[in-house]
Amino acid sequence: VARGWAAGIFISFTPFFGFHFMGAALLAWIIRGNVLAALLGTFVGNPLTTPFIALTATGLGRWVLGVEGKFTPHLIFDEFTRAGSELWNNLLAPLSADRVAHWDQLAQFNQQIFTPYLVGGIIEGLPICIAIHYLTVPVIKAYHRHREKQMAERIARAKARRAREIAESTGR
Known about the structure:
The protein is mostly helical. It has helices spanning about 1-10, 20-30, 35-40, 50-65, 75-90, 105-170.
């Protein structure tokens, strides 16, 4: 469970929006983690946290890769929007005579945002998911100990109840 949870959180730091569930499930399967925990871990990247993750990961990635140029939070959103529009246009271009495929926005997006986001997300995500894993393991172990104790008490009560029933039926 801890490995799955960490896998889902790690994937939340990547720019693969729309593929976080699949990526988390695949990563959890590869590292033999719980897939359901991985899917739940992806919710760390939610509408409240994603802007901060995107901003810090892209900024860190741009710094590590030495990418020059203006960088603002609004730029990330604009670049994702432009790249998505261009990708959609390029997918429809073979179906329509009046559309022409252009790849320049995607190349700029890859250089300015996607690759830095990916590099920065990996750099940020690895230590965070490792820390989460090691913080989650004791919690899960404590939960299992608690469940074992509950089960042992339940079995003891059932045995005592059964012994009373047998004693009452035999008249002792």
